[in-house]
Description:
three-stranded antiparallel sheet; elongated
Amino acid sequence: MSNVATRFAPSPTGALHIGGIRTALFNWLYSKNQKGTFHLRIEDTDKERSKEEHKIQIIKSLNWLGIKHDGEEYIQSTKIDDHVKIAHELLKNGFAYKCYCSPEEIEEQKKRARQKKIPYIYNRKWRDAEEKDAPKEIKPVIRFKSKIEGSSILKDLVQGDVEIENSTIEDFVILRNDGTPTYNLSATVDDHEMGMTHIIRGDDHKINTFKQMQIYEAMKWGLPLFAHIPLIHTIEGKKLSKRDNASTLDDYSKIGIIPDALRNYLLRLGWSYQDKEIFTLEESVKYFNLEGIGKSPSKLDMSRILSMNEHYIKNIDENDLYDHLLRYCEEFKDKINTEKASKIKSSLVFLKNKAKTLEEIFNNAKYIINDEVNFNEKDLKLIDDKSKKIINEFQDEIKNLESLTRDNLEPIVNNLIKKHETNFKGVGQPLRVALTGSKFGPGLYDIVISLGKADVEKRLREILN
């Protein structure tokens, strides 16, 4: 077989769905593993709903995840004439026919099928009818002449051999009465024109594949190989839809999921390699194969995504984590000034502690970012007269220090504990509230050192006043 070529073919009618992103990832990884090419086709023939901003968002989403397509984007709407030409060729060669059924007639047939509780299949009324009997007032659609006898077998690279009775495939429309092509015709012509060798997509496309195989055969085109991936379900086991929470990529980037973590999670969603869990990008390309894809649907599990993200936060290079955090804040929070950014950088080692997302690191760092301390009313009540005394004495002690280190802070805190006959919490809690506004957060020494002497003194003065 020639070089492997795969494609991802989204419609720009909305934000990219997480199932679509996984399909793109699998296509991209398979191509790269096979040293082939990966193409992006924008299926924008639905003029009403297709929007340029959605196309831009799709490309941005894929790039964010590290999925880059080869060559230019293939824009389906620019190829309509090619699709129409093939429809007329099929008509001329006896593989298609004009159907003059009115919309009312079709609706009636559908209604009867519903009453009988059987799937609707067009009754093929015009399949062998004479053109001279056609009603003049109706613009016909063009239907493909599907096989009526025997069965067809799809040699699926994931599902194995799938057999279907040909009589269950209706004579599907390939050209609407306004002259525009339908999905099955356009997708088949484009896949052929683009030289696609492998079509990897969701298994809700299986019936489309049987229809498209018949077009390939009628046109005497070489058939690509097909792989149908099981769908992603919600944790309750329902099919995931665009209306579900956390179904688009933006839902993840907004809360601060790292691209590598999400890509690793999606790779493992319905695919496995030995018992390996964590894959670098290079390993993903090296080990990816179609044999590792499971046959049953996967469940999207947010807690699993968060724990994967926590693993990445804990283990990636701190400079990389810092870059991710700055980009995240710039896009979804506020840009952080240089002085505060450098304080955050040197404090990442504890700010990232137990954080599952970049947003949680941002929240942990708020006491550094905000100039004004935002007090939690309940915690502010902890600053009673005894606490003020402790804060005052702590302030007096640090005045003479050149810089603040754990070594010179510990003796001061221990003396205050002894003097006021209390414990670490008795000293640490009022100081933490004074400096951050809350009794929760990083350790006391970490807070004091990260703020620096000038900032600590300023905040302690404010609380005492």
